[in-house]
Amino acid sequence: MLQGRAALVTGSTSGIGLAIAEALAGEGSQVMMNGFGDADEIEEMRSSMAKRHNVEVQYSGADLTESDQIEGLVDDAVSAFGSLDILVNCAGIQIIAPIDEFPIDGWDAMIAIHLSATFHTTRLVLPHMKERRWGRIVNMGSAHGLVASPYKAPYVAAKHGVVGFTKATAIEAGSWEITCNAICPGFVKTPMYDLQAEGLAVQEGRDVEEFIQEQVSTRHALPRIISVEEIAGTVLYLCSDAGRSVTGTTLSVDGGWTAT
């Protein structure tokens, strides 16, 4: 489906981003991975993905809080593949605290990684997509881009910003057959979610698995956690011909969280 295409997926060394990179490679796209982690483990992921799918897979450890490193990331991807056709902004972190106790550097990091980095990658890849008159930009929103929860003010603010930025990008880029959409997941089984749930459960003196089940069943109409493969499948749909007229919208893959 995506033979001859080239993709950049931020935050793709674990969780949702890794599943998306794997899915795109599985459809024939070349992939630039990005994220943090153990260097040997990342190299094993990269080389294994390339061999399994017989595509070129590269890696950059660019820090998305630094705009000059984002420029280097995009330049490296274009140099490696000759173009960039697909951009998936998936990098993310989570810090939980009340607004009046929230660390200022934590706010700055959350906005930089979730929102500012999405702007920088988009502004840098658009000229390459316009040149080829084809592009797919997928921003990882969240149910928290549509509704709010306590103790997550920077995350909620950033994800609402991502949703708005997605709409503006779609309007500006449509003339070049470039689409831009945001996927808004609910609770997804990822290392970041596991750490967050464990921290909250310990804070409340609760059993972790019991806490997760209660949290999911309280928010989701479907009483189960979402898999990373479900999110990756939604990305593939948006990059396929079937999704070529879908732009400027949010796709809620949230188990029914935002239905009420």
Keywords:
260 residues; alpha/beta; Rossmann fold; 7-stranded parallel beta sheet; 8 helices
Written overview of the protein:
The protein has 260 residues and is an alpha/beta fold. The protein has a single domain (6-186, 228-259), classed as Rossmann fold, CATH 3.40.50.720. The protein contains eight helices and seven strands.
Uncertain residue segments: none
H-E string: EHEHEHEHEHEHHHE
Helix proportion: 40-55%
Instruction: Enumerate how many helices there are, as a single number.
Output: 8
* Shape summary: globular
Instruction: Give the helix/strand class.
Output: alpha/beta
Give the tally of β-strands. 7
Report the CATH architecture: 3-Layer(aba) Sandwich
Percent range for β-strand residues: 5-15%
> What number of structural domains do the residues give?
1
Question: In order across it, which strands form the biggest sheet?
Answer: 3-2-1-4-5-6-7
The CATH class turns out to be Alpha Beta
Distance between the termini: 36 Å
Q: Overall pLDDT, averaged?
A: 96
The CATH homologous superfamily is termed NAD(P)-binding Rossmann-like Domain
CATH topology: Rossmann fold
Give a quick rundown of the structure.
By secondary structure, the protein is an alpha/beta fold. The protein contains 8 helices and 7 strands.
